[in-house]
Amino acid sequence: MRIEHLAINVEEPTKMVNWYVKHLGMTVVRANHDANETHFILDEGGKVVLEVYNNPASPLPDYRGMNPLMFHIAFAVEDIEAAHAQLAAAGASPEGAINATPAGDRLAFLRDPWGVPLQLAKRATPLL
Fold first, then answer.
1. 104 φ/ψ sector (left φ>0, alpha ψ -120 to 50, else beta)
2. How far apart are the first and last CA of the chain?
3. What is the pLDDT of residues 50-75, one digit of tens each?
4. Is the pLDDT of residue 33 over 90?
5. 3-class SS of residue 93
6. Is pTM, for the whole model, over 0.90?
7. Fewer beta carbons within 10 angstroms: which end of the chain, N or C?
8. d(Cα 68, Cα 95) in Å, to the nearest integer?
9. Mean pLDDT, residues 75-100 taken together
10. Going by C-beta distance under 8 Å and a sequence separation of 6 or more, which residues neighbour residue 109?
C-alpha cells in the first residue's frame, strides 16, 4: 500500500490552492468545482498529493491556534533562508527562528495566510 493523499479542510480552498501553486510550486491535478471547492494538488517532487476542500459538515480546525508541532505540512528545501524569506514576503507568518537539530537538520515554521502551519526542512540526510 501507499498513501494516496492527505486532506485538509479549510475556509477558502481555491484561494489557498492558488497561493500554494504560486509560492510552493504545487500543481493542481484535479479540481472539482463543487460546493466544497475540492482540489487535489501535487508537490514539485511528484510524490505527495494534498486534497484541499471546505466541507461545512465538519468544523474547521483552529489552525491559527494549533501548535505547529501538533500538525504541519513540511516542505523539503535546498536553501532554507531563501525559502523562508520568499514565503514571508508572500504573506506567510514566521513562527520563530530557523533551528538546527542534533542530527544536523535545519527546520523552520511559518503559517500560510490561512494560519496553516508549514515547516521548511533542510535535511542533513534527505528522507527521500
1. left
2. 17
3. 999 999 999 999 999 999 999 999 99
4. no
5. strand
6. yes
7. N
8. 9
9. 97
10. 68, 72, 94, 95, 96, 117, 118, 119, 120
CA 86 – CA 105 distance, rounded (Å): 20
Signed CA dihedral, 72, 20, 75, 79: sign only: negative
Say if CB 42 and CB 21 are below 8 A apart: no
CB-based contacts of 39: which residues, under 8 Å, 6+ apart? 13, 14, 17, 28, 30, 31, 32, 51, 52, 53
Tens digits of residue pLDDT in 14-24: 999 999 999 99
Q: Backbone phi, then psi, for 93, in 5-degree steps?
A: -105, 120
Choose among 48, 47, 28: nearest CA to 39.
28
In the structure grid, which three cell numbers stand for residue 65, read together?
Answer: 491556534
**Cell 486532506, residue located:** 7
Amino acid at 119: Q
